[in-house]
Amino acid sequence: MTQDWHTPGHASFASSHAGKKPFETTQLAYGTQVLWPDHCVQGSEDAALLKDLKLPTAQLIIRKGFHKDVDSYSTFEEADRKTSTGLGPYLKARGVDTVFLTGLATDFCVLWSAVDARKLGFTTYVIEDATRAIDLNGSLAAAWKQMTEAGVKRIQSGDIQVA
Ligand SMILES: [Zn+2]
Q1: What are phi and psi of 3, to 5 degrees?
Q2: pTM value?
Q3: pLDDT of the chain along its 163 residues, tens only?
Q4: Alpha carbon of 163 to ligand 1 centroid (Å)
Q5: CA 37 to ligand 1 center in whole angstroms
Q6: How far is the CA of 64 from the centre of ligand 1 (A)?
Q7: Which of 37, 47, 111, 148 could form a disulfide with 143 if both were Cys (CB 3.0 to 4.6 A apart)?
Q8: Rounded to whole angstroms, how far apart are CA atoms 137 and 155?
Q9: How far is the CA of 57 from the centre of ligand 1 (A)?
Q10: Residue 13, exposed/middle/buried by CB under 10 A (0-12, 13-18, 19+)?
Q11: 103 alpha carbon to ligand 1 midpoint, in Å?
Q12: Separation of 62 CA from ligand 1 center, angstroms?
């Protein structure tokens, strides 16, 4: 599982940049950053996993975006494209070769995670109806194009049979 786990005043928050509004962009050390409403501050209710989420077999929670000046859409690598979260080596050490992605948001965190999963050599599925998009200026269509080109497989929850 993953959790956005931001510091107060995180660089990805519009409120941290004078005169900026949510969904505008700014330049950070690693490139263009979309600015978001304040969200998922460490330890807050907003950052908590949904209490109705039942995943008793989950063994690891990746908390991401906890470096104040670096966002992390991907669960594999932070937005500076240098800092690993450790998830890729963790999965490989445990013999995992296939990744199924769900959650928020299709065109940001799911997109970046799916493309990184392919870069790391995982067979990668996005379960479309278990994700929701932001769809900012056509970002959803662009995300599917990018994921398809990266070899990500697009499936629906009904395509999965639970043994
Ligand atoms: Zn975030």
Answers
A1: -135, 130
A2: 0.95
A3: 999 999 999 999 999 999 999 999 999 999 999 999 999 999 999 999 999 999 999 999 999 999 999 999 999 999 999 999 999 999 999 999 999 999 999 999 999 999 999 999 999 999 999 999 999 999 999 999 999 999 999 999 999 987 7
A4: 34
A5: 9
A6: 8
A7: 111
A8: 24
A9: 25
A10: buried
A11: 13
A12: 13
Which single residue is written with the structure tokens 């965190």?
109
Tell how far the Cα of 154 is from the centroid of ligand 1, in angstroms: 24
Position of tokens 């330049």?
27
Q: Which two tokens stand for residue 159?
A: 């395509």
Cα gap 103→27, rounded to integer Å? 27
Give the DSSP per-residue string, 23-54: T-EEEETTEEEE-B-S--BTTSGGGSPPTT--
